[in-house]
Specification:
seven-stranded mixed sheet; eight-stranded mixed sheet; OB fold (Dihydrolipoamide Acetyltransferase, E2P); single chain; 49% helix; 6 domains
């Protein structure tokens, strides 16, 4: 079987993925069984595919075991302190990421102090420190610190298409989240656990950073520091935005491209100095490793370093260089070093781009050369013709390989990435060389850095001008709906079929294809090409929707708040409330940005037909600030209750700015949505409630959604006064599904309300709170009447489907699993 290492690496990678879904004990048993089987086959001297299968299984088991061991190492005993105010003592385990009002970094724990008692602690947490007073703390990698705040073990995915924060932290080597104030921070210098080599590298990095930023204007200095050392926080916000929109972020932060360019320069230097063979090989490898180590051993730099080192060894040994084997070896070394890197976007983009370059760059370059040769002007400059073909082929191949990952991660695709990369790539080698020479010379004699800086500054100015000019174009970046994992898998499978075209499968899969006797025909290629074009169309929301489907009513888990998504049989999208946070907690739109918008994107909602606010409380409208900023809406519906809360007025200003029509509803109004589907308004009355315990709650819109013979009663946050009024006016007819009012808060008339509505299903949107919601009395009444009820704090999102005569309920979580 050709390229044996490729299949071993694929098996090890598959094992890491499997490790996310099986416990450590199962991974150990799998590894033991696979090892026994491999040894038995080895002793029986079997050959061929039957001998390979146990070895592949052994690598799958090894990957699974490696993942579980890595997770256990970073988890430690952190979960013992969930939801506790405590003081953490530990080491900053990576470079902090700076934002306007906070800094985020991994903190490797030594001790924890809870209620004055100091305890040993192990594990790593993602620490977020806020500095609202504007004074950013002095913080860097390797420092020993202590800080006070709240430690939380994140919950898993609780809404369809939602963000699994727990899994995100786990795959980045962190077990919990920690939130504190920067004013409680104490710094004790470099940690004693930091190795001497790492300490030296950090000191060199700090000196280089200070030198480069001191020699150049702020924008240019920050850009050069980002290019050479990967410190993205050095970029000015406007520059970082332009870099993102133009699709050249991989060039302007340390990546495999930088290592490759540096290796080429070192190789050229050795040739000019007459240093060849093993001395040149070892010199280049040492220099590249030092550079990768100083810049933090990021996945892309580690991949490039291993591939180049293997290539140099092959050159010195007189062996044939094989790119697929080199890619597989680099991936195996990287994932043995840290299996959790597999789930990081940096590694995924790096290997997707590399494999795509290996597969597509050469054929694309040949095709472009043939095309350019037919153009009259191209014949006058064969060199330029070759350069344009090479640059275009490399850029297109990399973009093709990384397109779905970029769309999934960043939810936008740059439309100017091709010209931006073609125009910036030629100056990168000179810019990297000048910057590195300036940094190294500056460490010895700062004055010597002046001449290389004279070379670097015009190149930096050109790069800044180009990225800012292209990034400012209105069409520079197109937002997309994130592709689903199945669509990403189909995309890459189609790429394989397109390259194959009935003649040749890419070498990664040649052996399997030969073993399975696979053959492709011309119509396979045509169908694959059409599917490949259809997938991005779906990401842009351009594919037609299914004509008829059941009514969906989705009670999203937004914590202590309400957000109900309704998709009608005809495809209308309606959002009733959007969750939110109390104003005193700041960022009231956070729930909308992190929960509601991702859900709507997952459901491919490009426009909301109607947005309804039941009443003006932050836990119902706060998230809509993020929703309406991102997703267009055709109509806003509210009650007539007026408030002068700054955040609510900001929402109304946003509605006016977006030119969204605003409709006020009261008792007796009716909204006809589709045939056999309508809403009737049961509350508030024309004369709004005043003088009650909470006028805002009692004036909530109470809506009864009818779909043929099935009805939903959506009650907002009404309290006892509104419930008594509706009971007295006989406004609460029987309904199949009841949204329990006010998150299950106590209501004296709730028994009477249940008697009138007589629901078969009840849903309680509720989260962590200090109000005692849901009240035990409410739960007792539901249980006494044998009403099936669901709580978002225990079941996650609750979805009810109805065809108009029956309904079925689906929950995101099985109660008790999370």
């Amino acid at each position: 079987m050709t390229r044996f290492l490729v299949f071993l690496t694929m098996s090890y990678t598959a094992g890491i993925v499997l490790g996310r879904y099986i416990p450590l004990i199962a991974a150990i048993c799998l590894a033991g069984g696979a090892a026994a089987w491999a040894i038995w086959h080895l002793r029986s001297q079997r050959q061929g595919l039957s001998a390979l299968i146990p070895l592949l299984l052994l690598f799958i088991a090894a990957g699974s075991l490696a993942f579980n061991l890595a997770v256990n190492k970073v988890s430690g005993n952190v979960q013992d302190y969930h939801e506790q105010q405590c003081t953490l003592v530990g080491m900053v385990a990576n470079e902090p990421l700076w934002h306007d009002d906070r800094v985020v970094f991994p903190l490797e724990l030594d001790r924890v102090i809870v209620r004055g008692e100091e305890r040993a602690a192990a594990g790593t947490v993602r620490a977020t420190l806020y500095f609202n007073d504007g004074a950013a703390p002095a913080l860097s990698y390797g420092q020993q610190i202590s800080v006070r705040g709240l430690l939380l073990v994140p919950r898993g995915k609780r809404n369809p298409g939602g963000f699994d924060y727990g899994a995100f932290l786990q795959t980045r080597g962190m077990a919990a989240a920690f939130y504190g104030e920067a004013r409680s921070l104490e710094v004790y210098g470099f940690s004693a656990d930091l190795s001497p080599f790492r300490r030296i590298s950090l000191e060199l990095r700090e000196r280089m950073t200070a030198l480069l930023r001191a020699q150049l204007p702020p924008a240019a200095g920050g850009l050069l520091v980002a290019i050479l050392l990967g410190e993205r926080h050095a970029l000015e916000p406007a520059v970082e935005e332009a870099v993102r929109r133009t699709g050249v972020a991989h060039m302007l932060s340390v990546s495999g491209l930088h290592v490759a360019l540096l290796a080429a320069m070192l190789f050229l230097l050795c040739n000019r100095l007459g240093v060849k063979g093993w001395p040149a090989c070892l010199f280049i490898i040492f220099f590249l490793f030092a550079y990768a180590y100083i810049t933090g051993m990021e996945p892309a730099t580690l991949r490039s370093f291993v591939m180049i080192a293997l290539g140099l060894f092959a050159l010195c040994l007189g062996r044939r260089q094989d790119l697929p084997t080199a890619v597989a070896a680099a991936a195996l070394v990287t994932l043995i070093y840290n299996p959790l890197l597999l789930f990081q976007t940096g590694l995924q983009l790096s290997y997707a781009a590399t494999i795509s370059l290996v597969t597509f760059a050469a054929p694309l370059q040949q095709a472009l050369l043939k095309t350019l040769a037919r153009l009259p002007l191209a014949r006058f400059s064969p060199y330029l013709q070759g350069q344009v073909a090479a640059l275009t082929a490399v850029t297109v191949a990399a973009q093709v390989g990384t397109l779905p990952i970029i769309a999934y991660t960043f939810k936008e695709i740059s439309l100017v990435a091709l010209p931006a990369n073609i125009l910036i790539l030629p100056v990168m080698a000179l810019l990297l060389g000048a910057g590195l020479i300036a940094a190294i010379l500056g460490l010895v004699v700062p004055l010597f850095a002046f001449l290389p800086m004279l070379v670097a500054y015009p190149l930096l100015a050109y790069t800044l001008w180009l990225t800012e000019t292209l990034g400012a174009l209105s069409f520079a970046a197109m937002p997309v709906l994130p592709p689903r994992l199945l669509e990403i898998s189909i995309y890459y499978m189609i790429l394989i079929l397109i390259v194959w075209r009935g003649k040749e499968l890419p070498r990664f899969f040649l052996a399997f294809a030969h073993y399975l006797r696979l053959k492709a025909r011309p119509f396979h290629f045509i169908a694959a090409t059409m599917l490949l074009l259809a997938l991005p169309a779906g990401w842009w929301g351009l594919l037609p929707a299914v004509a008829q489907r059941p009514l969906e009513v989705v009670f999203l888990d937004v914590g202590q708040g309400d957000a109900i998504f309704i998709r009608t049989p005809g495809g209308q999208n309606i959002l009733l409330d959007g969750g939110g946070r109390p104003a005193f907690q700041e960022e009231i739109e956070r729930v909308g940005r992190l929960v509601v918008v991702p859900y709507l994107e997952y459901r491919r909602v490009r426009e909301l037909d109607m947005v309804i606010i039941s009443h003006p409380h932050e836990d119902h409208y706060g998230g809509l600030l993020a929703v309406l900023d991102k997703i267009p809406a055709r109509l806003l519906v509210t009650n007539k209750h007026e408030v002068d809360e700054a955040s609510y007025l900001r929402l109304l200003d946003l509605v006016a700015e977006k030119e969204i029509p605003h409709l006020f509803l009261e008792r007796g109004d009716r909204l006809s949505l589709e045939d056999h589907l309508w809403m009737e308004v049961l509350n508030p009355p024309s004369l709004l409630f005043t003088g009650t315990g909470s006028d805002e709650n009692n004036n909530s819109l109470v809506l009864r959604l009818h779909h043929r013979a099935v009805s939903f009663l959506l009650t907002g946050d009404i309290e006892n006064e509104a419930a008594l009024w509706m009971l007295a006016e006989d406004l609460l007819p029987p309904s199949n599904v009841l949204k329990v009012p006010h998150h299950g808060g106590y209501m004296a008339s709730f028994a009477d309300l249940l008697g009138a509505v007589d629901p078969q299903v009840a849903v309680i949107p509720v989260g962590r709170n200090t109000f005692g919601h849901p009240h035990p009395h409410i739960l007792e009444l539901l249980e006494a009447r044998e009403i099936e009820y669901y709580r978002s704090d225990r079941h996650g999102a609750v979805t009810i489907y109805s065809d108009g005569s029956t309904w079925e309920t689906e929950t995101m979580l099985i109660f008790g699993t999370q």
